[in-house]
Amino acid sequence: EHERLTEKYGRGAPQTAAALGNLAAGWAEVARSRRGEHDARELFEKAIELYRALLAIRLAVAQNTTTSRRTITARGQLARLLADAEKFLPAVDECRQWCKDAARHPDFGTSHPETLEMRRLSAHWLACGGLLAEAINLLERLVPEYVGLLGPDHPETLMASNDLAVRLGDAKDTRRRGYTMMLNLLPRMQRVLGPDHPTTLVARADLAALLAAVAGMDKAKEALCVLLPDLVRILGADHDNTLKVRQNIAVFAGELGDAPSARDLFSKLLADKIRILGPSHPETLEIRLSVASWTGDAGDATSAYLALQKLVTDSERALGADHLITLKARVELAYWFRGGPEHVEDWKRWVAALLFDMRRTLGSNNALMLDAHRRLAHWFNPDEYMPPIASDPTVRPI
């Protein structure tokens, strides 16, 4: 239909643009439904290409005039699609331009609720893209605007405040401030939204995560274990938030020194992820990474190494070589290297290539990049960091 209308009316005609918008929306829906499958990347790229083409047409029609509402809508759809494709920083770029366009449009302006929501999404995507300080800075400016426009107890204000508390908790130097903010915020959520509201339940989980930093992981794990039955009762055993809390309980078990329990909890979670999402979904692959890592920490380094070899291959095929999960898996594979001494020099070159790929993909100051340097420091200072290398004729580097 789009091709027919293009031939009949021309590329920039209103009828053609409407058909292109429908086509882009259709591809976007297909891409989202296939997220985690082997062809998801290509589907997202196709949808993104169509939305960029639509945006170009909208901009051409509206040149030298105030940006049209249709242009603003198309840009917002593109930003959300980029984020769903995990292209977080390009999504932020589109979101920032959306806000500039909206500020000049009479139907929006800088204080419109939809403008505030796009800025809140931008902060979330900044954090997902590794730019935590920028996310915190944006949210600290944004929350007072929500309070002034909607009031301190409006659900949108509470959600933005929750976002700020979580991001403050993610940063080491503001963690206690984030905990205090969340501690004060939760009773307001329970009063305004109700104790069983999904947002309140998420806030309880966020508070438990922050509790780990200020009171200890044992207290955080206890809080999550109390929360888990409520999540199962209200949201269901297969709900994403329920699964996330199970994941955090497993992490805390491992961090408290019980690696076998962490391995077993992650293994049970993996079976549910495969059943619910499929074997190639990013979340499933990430849980496989955790199972392999905790298997190594539980004392079976060779099994961890072999599992990570297969995971890297599967993740590259499903998500691509530059995906964050693939890069994390490659870091863990390098850490759990179990080849013989004769492979060490080759492996050092492999590690150098990995760090180069991470720097190219993420930038030098990305949190994951810095963690990788710490995780793999033993390759560059073996006397201090190198774990024992066990020769095993059945194990070879990939």
Give your account of this protein's structure.
- The protein has 398 residues and is mainly α.
- Helix content is 76%, strand content 0%.
- The protein has helices at 2-9, 14-33, 40-61, 69-84, 88-104, 113-128, 132-150, 155-170, 175-192, 198-215, 217-234, 240-255, 259-277, 282-297, 301-319, 324-335, 344-362, 367-375, 382-385.
- It is globular.
- The termini are far apart.
- Residues 382-398 have low confidence and may be disordered.
> N-to-C SSE series?
HHHHHHHHHHHHHHHHHHH
Low-confidence segments, ≥5 residues, pLDDT <50?
382-398
Average pLDDT for all residues: 88
How many beta-strand runs?
0
Q: In percent, how much strand structure appears in the residues? A: under 5%
Task: Note the main sheet.
Answer: none
The radius of gyration over CA amounts to 24 Å
Q: Tell me the helix content.
A: over 70%
Q: Decide which structural class fits the backbone.
A: mainly alpha
Bulk shape: globular
What is the CA-CA span between the terminal residues? 48 Å
By oligomeric state, this entry counts as single chain
Number of DSSP helical runs: 19
